[in-house]
Amino acid sequence: MEFSKRLGKLAPYPFVEISRIIAEKKAAGADVVTFGIGDPDIPTPDPIIERLLSASKHEPNHRYPETDGLPEFRKAIADWYKGRFDVQLNPDTEVLPLIGAKEGIGHAAFCFLDPGDIALIPDPAYPVYGVGTMFAGAESYTMPLTEANNWLPDYSAIPTNVADKAKIMWLNYPNNPTSAIATEDDFKEAISFCKKHNIALLHDAAYSEVGYEGYKPLSFMEIPGAKEVGIEFHSLSKTYNMTGWRSGMAVGNAEMIKALFQIKANLDSGIPQAVQEMSMQALLDDQTCVQTNIDIYQARRDRVITALTRMGLEVAVPKASLYIWAHIPDGFTSADFAARLLADNDIVVTPGSSYGEYGEGYIRLSLTTPDEQVEKGCIRLENWKIPAP
Ligand SMILES: Cc1ncc(COP(=O)(O)O)c(C=O)c1O
Q1: 388, part of any domain
Q2: Same domain, yes or no, for 197 and 314?
Q3: Cβ–ligand 1 contact at 179 (below 6 Å)
């Protein structure tokens, strides 16, 4: 049997590998504390689950869903965008439900990229932007994100011939893994660069609802001109503790939304309707659960920052997202440092290098771990004498 060349180009998906190591450790009796994947430990709020239970008994929901979802769900998404960001969207042409943002992000590459085309991809980044590009036979041109540039791309460093050839650019703020945020001016700069070079701008806003100390992250759709050049990917996963239910959306430029619909209509059959109903419940219900989550993550954030600082690591206090991005001591690779944390302390973190070469020198800690586990992990970190590299 012969498999495709693209399959051979895939590195193991970081969290599949981490899950395997955790399972192995646990089987050997270790008390593992994981700051690995960003997967909320807090349950989906009751009213959302109640809606799923009742929707599951509704027989029309037992049949194939439409690729573009229930009209009421698209309207709920548009209403949520209006309420949260004051962004007006046409639910029938500017909104497309997704089976989680990851699905849409992966499929989006097929809308824009042919073999040999260029996609501008940040590094470090959520791996799916680059993998989708590779699946479409296109090339990733790396936009390094550096601490010196506040983890934003330096557009002036992109050669004009690359910018002119590029078809799409991916951005993601609040950012995974660095936790960086983008200001209105940052988005304006990205939009004007993309307009100048006729590039489609794909913004991933999966963490827009996790902002600390009252900070409300922006939607790129709030910025004038956004709809002319781009779409935004969003997700119910992190906002409503719904990673397990697979629900998200793309919104914005109608032509781009239509293109993504065409690709999806040929590859998937939409979100189960009962899940669409629970998603409507999440988006339209009272939003107190969102702040409840933020308060929990903020307390964990402060505890983890204290522990890392006591260890002597350099770490910025994130304004948003579920992650702490910490600089590791010189002499270690991020993979080595993560391996030492696991071997010496039974603590799982993600090496920065999993997100690209510019993630080297950092580790990422996710705050989606129950409080008592966070405390246990922090005590272990504080008591750890970092060995020589
Ligand atoms: C930046 C980013 N985008 C998208 C996703 C995927 O979201 P979903 O669960 O909606 O597929 C993640 C998940 O971790 C993410 O970190």
Answers
A1: no
A2: no
A3: no
Name 366's Cβ contacts closer than 8 Å, sequence gap at least 6.
34, 35, 36, 37, 38, 39, 322, 323, 350
CA of 101 to the centre of ligand 1 (A): 6
Q: Which atom of ligand 1 is nearest to the CA of 243?
A: 9
User: Do 9 and 70 share a domain, yes or no?
Assistant: no
Distance of alpha carbon 128 from the chain centroid: 9
- Residues 53 and 37 occupy one common structural domain: no
Q: Which residues contact 259 (CB under 8 A, 6 or more apart)?
A: 111, 112
Domain of residue 230 covers 47-284
User: What is the pTM (predicted TM-score) of this model?
Assistant: 0.96
Q: Give nearest CA residue, ligand 1 atom 6.
A: 102
Whether 389 is covered by a domain: the verdict is no
Domain count for the chain: 2
Looking at the CA of residue 103, tell me the nearest atom of ligand 1. 11
- Our mutation pick for probing the ligand 1 site, out of 171, 179, 203, 237, counting the most ligand atoms within 8 A of Cβ, is 237
Query: Ligand 1 centroid to 334 CA: how many Å?
Result: 22
Question: Interior CA angle at 99 toward 61 and 215, to 5°?
Answer: 120
119 and 207 housed in the same domain? yes
Angle at 359 between CA 355 and CA 361, to 5 degrees: 140
* Ligand 1 atom with minimal separation from the 98 CA: 10
State in Å: Cα 92 to ligand 1 middle: 24
- Tens-level pLDDT at each residue, the chain (389 residues): 999 999 988 877 666 777 777 888 888 888 999 999 899 999 999 999 999 999 999 999 999 999 999 999 999 999 999 999 999 999 999 999 999 999 999 999 999 999 999 999 999 999 999 999 999 999 999 999 999 999 999 999 999 999 999 999 999 999 999 999 999 999 999 999 999 999 999 999 999 999 999 999 999 999 999 999 999 999 999 999 999 999 999 999 999 999 999 999 999 999 999 999 999 999 999 999 999 999 999 999 999 999 999 999 989 999 999 999 999 999 999 999 998 999 899 999 999 999 999 999 999 999 999 999 999 999 999 999 988 88
Is residue 270 domain-shared with residue 350, that is, in the same domain? no
Ligand 1, residues 102, 239, 247, 354: which to mutate, most atoms within 8 A of Cβ? 102
What CA–CA distance (Å, rounded) separates 157 from 155?
5
